[in-house]
Amino acid sequence: MGLALTVLPRAGRSGGPPQAPPISPRRGERRLVDSHGRTIRDLRLSITDRCNFRCVYCMEPDVRFLPREGLLTVDELIRVARACVSLGAQKIRITGGEPAVRPELPEIIAGVAALGVADVALTTNGSIMDARTLAAWREAGLTRITISIDSLDPGAFARVTRSRTTPRDVIDGVRRAVAMGFHPVKLNAVIVRGLNEDQVVPLAALARDLGVEMRYIEFMPLDSAHAWDRSRVVPAAEIAAAIDRVYPLVPLGRHDVSSTALDYAFADGAPGGGRIGLIAPVTRPFCGACSRLRITADGKVRPCLFSTREWDLRPLLRDGCGDTEIEDFLLDATWTKQAGHGISAAGFEQPARPMSAIGG
Ligand code: SAM
Ligand code: SF4
Q1: pLDDT tens digits, residue range 118-128?
Q2: Contact 252/274 with Cβ under 8 angstroms?
């Protein structure tokens, strides 16, 4: 399946016409706004599509990665992030693929942190979180980490991630991150029917034990195998009910209107702290309040996870364009953000790129 692009040619300085979005009618406001009345405050910056895991819901073992020269350089990544900040982005989450496999990660964190945004976060699979690495991230200016852990059972963890990392390795890294003062540290688990739904309650117990938020994510049609099927989605309501039977929950709602997660506290206060978050894009879509914009590792502006249209910023970055041109491109691309993901609509088409190539 190819990417369907609506192409308006814009003169390129190094041959072939780069693809450009139509001009936003609200460009002059110099704020990232879309045509559905939403404002972008949250940038997801993917720094690589590579990964040392092959999670079954994300990446097939024979996945093909982008050529290295196709990835944005550190300077290019920081330049795009700076442009987004000047247009109103307040949070930047560095992601991938697995961001920790890119050797320049500390440099990228430092560059992003220097932009002065309130919030610099990282999403990682937790496989590379030794004390030295964590200290380097901390020193570079990282404050928040979200770590994936889909199972506490070593056999099941290996089946899900198809890696040699163990749940113990990840948990040790989480403890180190908490001890080092990263705050908040959150955990992510994608729950897939028939794969790891038996882990819902053990993972809640882990959140209580570690005093962190455990976030359960509904399986989305973003797997490179294109094997997603609604029957494999475990609805967030079912996850909440399973936890509530063992550890009664108190609903807290969304932290802010554009948050992806519905938050819950443990009714007993949980001696070690800890919380639950449910991310329900399939059964309770939150597109109406979306404040996110994604930049892929190869420099495409992707207004929505489920965009079938993305806009290639890399030629501008490499053609010597000025900051205003880069900003205009971002403003125009943002304007094209679709109203919603449409997973439940008739004729829904899974995007060609998997989650790992978009940036989760
Ligand atoms: N490699 C890092 C990790 O796994 O945390 C960061 C990138 S990963 C693409 C970001 C998040 O997307 C992870 O929490 C992962 O579990 C989630 N994810 C990947 N594929 C997904 C899918 N098909 N449905 C829902 N979430 C998915
Ligand atoms: Fe890698 Fe993260 Fe995708 Fe798993 S979810 S394969 S860790 S990018």
Answers
A1: 999 999 999 99
A2: no
- Domain ranges in the chain are 33-358
At residue 351 the predicted structure's pLDDT band, cuts being 50, 70 and 90, is confident
Sign of CA dihedral 296, 278, 207, 153: negative
Q: Quick one: which atom of ligand 2 is closest to the CA of 58?
A: 3
Ligand located closest to 52 CA: 2
Q: Which atom of ligand 1 is nearest to the CA of 96?
A: 7
E-strand ranges in the chain read 8-9, 19-20, 42-46, 91-95, 119-124, 144-148, 185-191, 213-218, 249-254, 261-266, 275-279, 292-295, 300-302, 311-312
Query: What is the Å distance from ligand 2's center to 54 Cα?
Result: 6
The ligand that comes nearest to the alpha carbon of residue 124 is 1
The structure tokens listed for 165 are 């990392």
Its CATH class, for the domain covering 33-358, is: alpha beta
Pairing type for strands 311-312 and 300-302 reads antiparallel
**CA separation for the pair 68, 74 (Å, rounded):** 12
Two tokens, residue 334: 């943002």
Ligand 1 shell residues, CB under 6 Å: 51, 57-58, 95-96, 98, 123-125, 148, 188, 190, 217, 219-220, 222-223, 355-356, 360
pLDDT for 285: 85
The predicted pLDDT at position 187 comes to 98
- Per the CB < 8 A criterion, the answer to whether 144 and 184 are in contact is yes
CA distances from 113 to 68, 140, 146, 250, 314 (A): 24, 7, 17, 35, 22
DSSP class of residue 116 equals T
| Token output for 7 | 């192409």
Span from the CA of 16 to the centroid of ligand 1 (angstroms): 34
Backbone angles phi, psi at 47, to 5 degrees: -110, -10
